[in-house]
Amino acid sequence: MMTLICKYKIRASSKSDIADMLKLAVAARGIMRKSGNLSQWPDDYPNIDVFSSDIERQGSFLMLDDKDEAVGTFAFLPGPEPTYSKIYNGEWINVDMDYYVIHRIASIPAAHGIFQSMLSYCFERTNNIRIDTHRDNIIMQHLLEKNGFKYCGIIYLANGDERLAYQLFKDE
Fold first, then answer.
1. How many other β-carbons are positioned within 10 Å of the β-carbon of residue 103?
2. Whole-prediction pTM value?
3. Rg from Cα positions in the chain
4. Collapsing DSSP states into helix, strand and coil, what is residue 40?
5. Is the torsion defined by CA of 95, 97, 98, 104 positive or negative?
6. What is the pLDDT of residue 7?
7. d(CA 78, CA 83)
């Protein structure tokens, strides 16, 4: 069983946080590009509209360091996720149970433990999480596997882009 520690303060995002969230997205895009993930998150994604939608759905969160500076952000939304209704070359761990989805994880390079802190926060609220990532996002794939997520198959986004789908269900 993994032990998760929440190293950062996590709170719901508001529209006044969008400027910080956009900066975090730029930083995350830089991390992706340095690691060879050249096509995930084009320059206009995630944008103000995407972040605003997450906030309106009460599923946007900001991670703050001990100086209350924004160091990370993520979306944590209840399913069903429309693009998860069909999965190819595999299957979800459980298809009939409620689940949450994590999207748009972004952080600054200097912040360590973002993923584990986010998971700790999310698993305090549900025991069933699905997530997807780009085939070239080796960093995310490593984090998912290291933290017990099971590779479930391939899903396709609304625009037709392929993503690798993962799920972690804690039966406790």
1. 16
2. 0.94
3. 15
4. coil
5. negative
6. 83
7. 13
Q: Are strands 162-169 and 150-156 parallel, antiparallel or unpaired?
A: antiparallel
What token pair was written down for 133? 């990532």
What is the model's pLDDT at position 1? Answer: 33
Residues of the chain with pLDDT under 70: 1-6, 172
Q: Which long-range contacts (CB under 8 A, 24 or more apart) does 35-39 make?
A: 35/137, 35/138, 35/139, 36/136, 36/138, 37/134, 37/136, 37/137, 37/138, 37/139, 38/136, 39/134, 39/136
CA distance 100 to 151: 16
- Say if CB 163 and CB 154 are below 8 A apart: yes
Q: How many residues does the chain have?
A: 172
Reduce the DSSP state of residue 158 to 3 states and report it.
coil
Backbone angles phi, psi at 24, to 5 degrees: -65, -35
- 127 DSSP assignment: S
Query: Are 120 and 168 spatial neighbours (Cβ–Cβ below 8 Å)?
Result: no
The phi and psi torsions of 94 (rounded to 5 degrees) equal -140, 130
The CA-based angle 141-145-150, given to 5 degrees, is 105
The number of CA neighbours under 13 Å toward the Cβ of 151 is: 15
Identity at 102, one-letter amino acid code:
I
pLDDT of the residue at 171: 86
pLDDT on residue 25? 98
